[in-house]
Task: structure prediction
Amino acid sequence: MLTKKFFKTKDEAEVTFEFNRSDVTTAALVGDFNDWQAIEMKFNKKSKSFKTKLRLPKGGIFHFRYLLNNTEWENDYQADQYLANEFGTENSVVDTTV
Result:
């Protein structure tokens, strides 16, 4: 799940990435916004989900995926859209256009 917060005085958006599936023990966020380097997501006991927040430039289209249990790639179920990637699958997309 994605939630976005836009700032009036900054050219960036705070995006919260959240993933929840009962069989997942570790989750990492990877995307083109940081050259596909894994960002470990923290488990939130209250919501029983993995979460992380990033600030991304406004007006951008960013590809990302989740790496689950260090072995499985998964898309965000509520991404803004999905686009094909070079591996024959699709990436999730977050759009920071206001």
User: Anything to note?
Assistant: The longest strand covers residues 49-57.
